[in-house]
Every structure is written in C-alpha cells, then in structure tokens.
Specification:
- The structure is a single chain.
- This protein has one domain (5-122).
- Helix content is 68%, strand content 0%.
- It has six helices and no strands.
- It has helices at residues 5-11, 20-29, 33-40, 47-76, 85-88, 98-122.
- The longest helix has 30 residues, at 47-76.
- It is elongated, with a radius of gyration of 18 Å.
- It starts with a helix and ends with a helix.
Length: 123
C-alpha cells in the first residue's frame, strides 16, 4: 500500500520533479508505476522522459510478442513467417515535429498505462 506523498518522497519512490497531483493521479490507476519510474530515472532526467523510455520498451515488447504469436500461428497453418522489415520501412529516416513527438509521447504513455493496468488487473 502506498503511503503519503511525503513518505514516498522520503523513501525515494517518487520520481524527481513529479508533483503531488501527478503522483496521486498515476498512483490511483497504477500504484507501482511511480516507483518503477523513480528506479529507472537517471540524475537530471525528466520523469516524463523516463516514463516514455519505459513505455516505449513495453510497447515494443508487446508488439514483438504479438508478432511472434502471429508467426507461430502462421507456422501451424504451414504459412511462412511475416517479414517485419517489409512493413516497417526500416532504413527510412523520418523526423517528427515537436507537436507530433508530444502526441506520440502521450499516446505511448496512454498505451503503456493501459498495458500496465491490464497486467496489474490479471494478478
């Protein structure tokens, strides 16, 4: 169970720079998320950047799991595996505007929160 904001700050489980309101909001739907962010945050790094890295990793892992499941199913049907390189445009450099980067960040945070919530609800 989570303690008060102050006790969690003292325990080092609140990411650097996270406000009481942000901590409360995130802790209400994903109680361990702030502790995970705090454990992975490097000195001077924004907690949002840390969360983005964590969520990007989670999303990529989930996508890889889904692709593996799809390829296993295709193998059972006698079909060749999906070549992910044909569909991802690997090797193409595309820059994103600041607004698009923020949108992607918020989408990734939302997707990660849903994945995290889903995994917590299964327990």
């Amino acid at each position: 169970m989570l303690g008060s904001y102050e006790s969690e700050v003292d325990a080092g489980t609140v990411p650097e720079g996270m406000t009481r309101e942000q901590w409360s909001a995130i802790s209400s739907f994903a109680p361990n998320a702030t502790q995970i962010i705090a454990q992975n945050q490097t000195p001077g790094e924004s907690w949002v950047d840390t969360a983005q890295k964590i969520l990007t990793g989670l999303v990529m892992t989930e996508q890889q799991r889904q692709l593996m499941q799809l390829n296993i199913e295709r193998a059972r049907q006698g079909l060749p595996p999906i070549d992910i390189n044909r569909y991802t445009g690997v090797g193409v450099n595309v820059g994103l505007s600041q607004g698009t980067q923020q949108l992607v960040l918020y989408l990734a945070l939302g997707a990660g929160a849903l994945i995290l919530l889903n995994s917590l609800m299964k327990r």
